[in-house]
Amino acid sequence: MSNKGRDLTWRKDLRSKLSAKERVLIPRVIMPELPVSYRIHNNQEVNSGLSLQQAILEATRCLDCADPGCIKGCPVHNDIPGFIKNIERREYTEAIKVLNKTTVLPAVCGRVCPQENQCEATCTYRKMNKDAVAIGALERFVADFEREVGNIKKDTGEHANTTLDDEENNEAHTKSFFPIKVAVIGSGPSGLSFAGDMRQRGYGVTVFEALSEIGGVLKYGIPEFCLPNYVVDNEIKKLKKSGVEFKKDILIGKTYTYEELFSMGYKGIYIATGAGKPRFMGIPGENLPGVMTANEYLIRLNYGVSKVFGVNSVNLKAKNIAVIGGGNTAIDAVRFAVRQGAERAMIIYRRGREEMPARSEEIRHAEEEGVEFLMLTNPIEFLGDSEGKLRAMKVQKMALGSPDESGRCRPVPIDGAIEEIEVDLVIESVGYLPNTPISLSGVNVSGKGEIVVDENSMKSSASAIYAGGDIVRGPATVILAMGDGRRAAASMANAFEEAMRGIKL
Fold it and tell me: What's the predicted TM-score (pTM) here?
């Protein structure tokens, strides 16, 4: 990816103020966090965000590379040096403008994306065995600044005559649009990314959501101590102001068929229904009361008083809680248990610490909060009491063998090493399957239920139907799902434009 803005006069002047050697000597800033003793008793966001001074200092570390690896490592190809250098020169409004060109969820990505494995992993500093620029923290800073401060010129406190809301409303009313509308099925990160890009290109967009909350996994699957609901709501609000229409409590395939969507005038459909169908372990006792999936557990707790479940029915005070799995969802679940007053909160994982797919920051936070990690441990049976309720689980101790197809060491059982652990609640987080669309004809689906698409265009085997995110690739990250949405939007828009020139869609 090119760094087109690098030759702008202000960028050259900025680079000349400090040499690369001087910038490299600046240590990476550390984002403030809530104290452990306080945060385990509430759902407040743990990471507090960078201060203005911290953000400017961290932005100063960026070397503004001629061939920035960070852009290559970003699935949506954000202009990372472009927005960071605007922070360094205190042009925060310009920084968010740069980000808005390629992402509709900067405040979300700045919080939950695994930057350490993507943009920051390809930062030049890593080649020098130094800490990468804190790209995620800076993205969060810019997005939060826009939300909390508004359209402010530099850092002088001088407000512009027009607010951000006015600018968005004016743009939505004055921008010319094609007389073509498209439907998006699912309001998670992939669907929102696609919707934002298509609207930016001038198309009418309606997002259909089966649940009662817009945001998909961002709202019902991630606790507020990681991603506050108000942050997601603000990103959705911006999409609404741009003209994207949202319709809740509509299950496409039941409420409307896909054929009916076309008859309603939608010329293209993007399917982004995710992968929320839980996998099960298939072991004895799995149906006992007291064993539930992470999806059900997180929805119950995220919504507290829910239209689906009524008053929160998960009482964890003084109970022993075990979460099975090693991904981010498992860590989210066990940290939630701590905040609900669990006496003992455990992660049960059949591999070792190094093989855990969860983000290192999430694991660190869980350890700080008192979570126990029982590594190389695999449940083999859930045991009930005399009333048929969960009381314990049998676990098989494991050892690491040779690597499997994922590159991680395969766990193998140790003969005779079986233990019993008392538990009051078990939460299974051992993987998810795609939410395969209902009554969708003409679309090829894999044996796992994933929609088969062309990897370059994200187009399915059916005319004018595209798909992306977890429904295509299986459970993955927010940013990869967003990248699919952007790619699909570009492909669908190109197909429409070719059709307008007389080429068959």
Answer: 0.89
